[in-house]
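FORM 7B - TANDEM STRUCTURE REPORT

SECTION 1: FIRST PROTEIN
SEQUENCE AND TOKENS:
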Amino acid sequence: MKMNLKLLKKLRMGTLILAASAAGICYSCGPRNGEEQEIVLETASGYGGEEAEESSSEKSSSQEMTSSGQSSCFVHVCGQVNAPGVYELEAGSRIYQAVEMAGGFGADAAVWYLNLAQEITDGMKIQVPSVQEAEQWEQTGGPRADSQWEASQEMKVNLNTADKEQLMTLTGIGESRAEDIIRYRQEHGPFEQIEDIMNVSGIKEGAFQKIKDSITV
């Protein structure tokens, strides 16, 4: 009986050892919870971060492309068109497209005067002239020729109103010669034409040719 009890205890101890060994093997072979979590988090963090960064970069690039693709210009179309006004067109459009937006040419429009293939720019004013206006512009150099002429005249030295310092800005005119010009107009009255300056002592044809484009009366 004692022999049987001892044998039974040994058998039980053996069974417990085998069970513990089997549990240890399973534990060592299986993935650890902590390690598995770290792997998952690292993967999610790395992959997700790069993906988010790439997505953000692509979105920004896409927005830039959309913005540049939809850029536009505002132009003022007036004159001999059917519907004058300010119109918005895509950048790179041509004058003929702006005229079309304004209802097309009017009955008296000088269609030949404008370069219809010219590319528009933002803030551009497109004035379509009548036939009569176009003929005048060709002779005077454009619709703003008069104002341009006035501006150029203002930059010139007026022989009848300029003081000594202003006259001395002219090529070859020193202090004494400037005083001679002032004395001449005081004694003989205002200059009637720029050529009259050659009546001043010491100013001859050569001196006049140097300053003729810089003086007015």
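SECTION 2: SECOND PROTEIN
SEQUENCE AND TOKENS:
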Amino acid sequence: MAYNTIDNYSNIYNYYMTTYAPKSSTPYDTHKKSELRSVYNSIVKMNKEAPIYILDTSRESCEFAVGMKENARELRNTIASLGDLSENEMLNKKAAYSSNENIASASYIGTPTDSVSAPSVEIEVHSLATTQVNTGNYLPGSEKVELSPATYSFDIGIDDLNYEFQFSIKPEDTNRDVQDRLSRLINNANIGISAQVVTNDENNSALRLESNATGLKNNKTDIFHVSDHRTSKTAGTVEYLGLDNLSVSASNASFVLNGEERTSPSNSLNVGRMYHVTLNGVSNEEGETASIGLKTDVESLTENINTLVRGYNSFLRAAAEYSDRQPKSNRIVQEVGSISRFYARGLTSAGLNLNLDGTLEVDSDAIQKTAAGSDAKAAFSSIMDFTQSLVRKSNQISLDPMNYVNNIVVAYKNPGKNFATPYITSAYSGMMFNSYC
């Protein structure tokens, strides 16, 4: 069993979120005081006239509420990432291109005003950043383990944190039994290391550990290390299984950016606060480069609309997945689908076709033809209005996901004669934390 006393509550929350909902951290998750005040005021207004109901606090309802809140947040962030949530900047984000995707791909991360002076860059890749790999001793898998039955433990140090793993060895355990057990134990701990059991030509097995991260930072010599010198239980597994056998050392990426030699511990890097570049491969010959720059306005708009449609379709499918367990989830599908149906004629004329299941399909040729027309702004007005409606709906779902849970209404308030009850939403957070407190 793995133990780590640092940030336990944060780890529990992150585990819950990655299990039941998409989780990402973006610049659009930070807010000004005025925005937080607006959210508070919306909560007060929403709950002032809300009926009193008995919460369904089942595990399935917890999963649904957290999942839909996070999916709504993801949709809003996707739209915000395409320029801004304001009417003038919506879907106005510039898109980057790479002349050689095999060497590097890129996305634009600057502001619309920065795009005027965004330079093109040339990049030549000599080597990619690599992970660290430890390959243990190859042992006959079917033979009994040569360690005495007891409770053993070992430590893995990674990112300045130390994790202790405890497990038991029984008299009947084979080498493969122990290796499989440790592989599951390490993978389930989710500490940034992937474990698997590998075999050689002689059918002997070994435990292989590989870091998720690449490269070496701050003059370190390794990404992780394994030992049982100071562990709390019986030692001996590290030497017997060879868990500290370094087979591949981590290394940094080496590349030439605009004629300047550089290194990076990661294959993803930001260039001049303008581009986010991902190194995909090594240049086949000296001087072979990838040119990175900005696409034309028509190409950028087409890519933004494709991203919008992917986010919309993903949200709609995520809501539909709960239909068997949470009947009220169909309300979300119907409400979001009604938005696209309302704008269907304008969307179709601009190049977005509405499918029978409510999802959208992009006609890239029609979009580019419309964008190149003399009155492109008017032609795309339906897409802009549709996008703004999606933002409002995603905000509504984020504020009160419990509105779509199977709750039992017990009383309606007297309209117009109620006090504000802004703390009703604490039922949502309390329900979530109640599952492990």
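SECTION 3: OBSERVATIONS ON SECOND PROTEIN
The first strand starts at residue 2 and ends at 3.
DSSP finds twelve helices and 21 strands in the chain.

SECTION 4: SIGNATURE
Preparer initials: ____
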